[in-house]
Specification:
Elements (H helix, E strand, L loop, with lengths): L6 E4 L3 H12 L4 E4 L4 H6 L5 E3 H9 L4 H6 L1 E3 L1 E6 L2 E6 H5 L3 E3 L2 H14 L3 E3 L3 E6 L7 E6 L2 E6 L2 E4 L17 E16 L9 E5 L2 E7 L5 E7 L10 H12 L13 E15 L2 E2 L2 E3 L5 E2 L7 H22 L3 H4 L1 H23 L7 H16 L1 H12 L6
Parallel strand pairs: 1-2, 1-12, 2-8, 5-14, 12-19
Antiparallel strand pairs: 3-7, 4-7, 5-6, 9-10, 10-11, 13-16, 13-17, 14-15, 15-16, 17-20, 18-19
Helix pairs in contact: 1-6, 1-8, 8-10, 11-12
Bound molecules: 8-demethyl-8-dimethylamino-flavin-adenine-dinucleotide (RFL) and P-hydroxybenzoic acid.
Length: 394
């Protein structure tokens, strides 16, 4: 096992793997420690929407080939309410697009790229803990195959997701936490069924929110709003399909949802969370380790990718010229973007879900907002700008 590296990275999710590969391209050495197996991280079903900037980043990193071949480029989305669909055309509004490509495929491509360049990823690195964070040689201790190891680093990147160990290792009182949970969750399925629509459909229905997405021309990804403490055992496939049919139905009855065998099913909580600052000494937090958004805006993976991009540039500046300017501004740069994305994700979530206990006034206000967003060019341009990804600036 390696005992010394320039950047020790905890977590082989999108944030950790993108960071590791960007550092490699800058000639900077890193070691990625991942608690799970390679198979597990390459099969975990999560996000699906890549902003245009994320696609460009991955392509410029040299891992865009399969993404270009298999990714589904979408030029707009549909919002459905009061039984009618409304197309928001990203291409004509902002000249940009999104790509549907599953997160686990991004992870597979990144792992392949790292290993092909002799990158070091230690899978099943257990009990990771971070130490001496304010010294010049912070350390990561972990167990592999029952043996304890210590990795001495110049810097540590905490890319270990929301439930990781890095953020809780920052001493009390250093971080300000902004946290909001929502009184609903998403029940998601993957189904072996051709997508019933060419574009994503976000539906606000009396029975609750529903989302139609996809993974390929053969696989649909569908979500419905449910209670946060819902037991998945109460949701046999037939009940899920029934709700999906109802929540996507159009007033003219013309739209049809194609069913197919359900191959995966899960419930995800909805949360907004920010830790400020995203740095403590020589520990930098990136991605879900630092912030969480509810999935309605399809932003989590994309935010993780931009954090990794800023951090890689900051570290590259440091190693090439000794400059710590960007490193010192890492948190400020990332949080500025993060808060705009937090607002967008919260806004999409509030506009599209049925809010338990909402008053008749709130319901009408919500429908009026959807009407405005889908009928005003100014409002739909703002939505399109956010959805396809805000410009990347330092
Ligand atoms: P990850 O992907 O959670 O990766 C963290 C990695 O760290 C490992 N780990 C540890 N390793 C070593 N030691 C420890 N102590 C460790 N603790 C944890 C974990 O095993 C894991 O491999 O975080 P990262 O890299 O920051 O990436 C964030 C994204 O995964 C996340 O934001 C997105 O999945 C969110 N998200 C979406 N994002 C989008 O951009 N577009 C979408 O369409 C989208 N849809 C979604 C989503 C998330 C969802 N769920 C399940 C919450 C849809 C859903 C339903
Ligand atoms: C997905 O395809 O998993 C997906 C799409 C859009 C979202 C969230 C998730 O807002």
């Amino acid at each position: 096992m390696p005992e010394r590296t320039q950047v020790g990275i905890v977590g082989a999710g999108p944030a950790g793997l993108i960071l590791s590969h960007l550092l490699h391209l800058e000639g900077i050495d890193s070691v990625v420690l991942e608690v799970h197996t390679r198979k597990y991280i390459e099969e975990r079903v999560r996000a699906g929407v890549l902003e245009q900037g994320t696609v460009e980043l991955l392509t410029n990193m040299g891992i865009g080939d399969r993404l270009k071949r298999e990714g589904l480029v979408h030029h707009g989305v549909q919002f459905r309410f009061r039984g009618q669909g409304h197309h928001i055309d990203f291409q004509s509004l902002v000249g940009r697009s999104i790509t549907i490509y599953a997160q686990q495929e991004v992870v597979k491509d990144l792992v392949n790229a790292r290993l092909a360049s002799n990158g070091q990823i230690v899978f099943e690195a257990m009990d990771a803990s971070v130490h001496d964070l304010t010294s010049k040689s912070p350390k990561i201790r972990y167990h592999k195959d029952g043996v304890e190891h210590e990795l001495v680093c110049d810097f540590i990147a905490g890319c270990d997701g929301f439930h990781g160990v890095c953020r809780p290792s920052v001493p009390e009182g250093v971080l300000t936490i902004y946290d909001r949970t929502y009184p609903f969750a998403w029940l998601g399925i993957l189904a072996q069924a051709p997508p019933s629509s060419e574009e994503l459909i976000y539906s606000n229905h009396e029975l609750g929110f529903a989302l139609l997405s996809m993974r390929s021309p053969e696989i649909s990804r569908l979500y419905i709003q449910c209670d946060p403490d819902e037991d998945i055992a109460n949701w046999p496939d037939a009940r899920i399909w029934e709700q999906l049919h109802l929540r996507f139905a159009t007033r003219d009855g013309a739209w049809k949802l194609t069913e197919g065998p359900v191959i995966q099913k899960n419930i995800a909580e909805m949360r907004s969370f920010v830790a400020d600052p995203m740095q403590y000494g020589r520990l930098f937090l990136a991605g879900d380790a630092a912030h969480i958004v509810p999935p309605t805006g399809a932003k989590g993976l994309n935010l993780a990718a931009t954090d990794a991009r800023v951090l890689a540039r900051a570290l590259a500046d440091y190693y090439s010229s000794g400059s710590t300017d960007l490193m010192q501004r890492y948190s400020e740069i990332c949080l500025r973007r993060c808060w705009k994305v937090q607002h967008f994700s919260w806004w999409m979530t509030s506009m599209l879900h049925r809010i338990p206990g909402e008053s008749p006034f709130d319901r009408q206000r919500q429908l009026a907002e959807l009407d405005y967003v889908t009928s005003s060019r100014a409002a739909s341009t703002a939505l399109a700008e956010h959805y396809t990804g805000l410009p990347f600036t330092f």
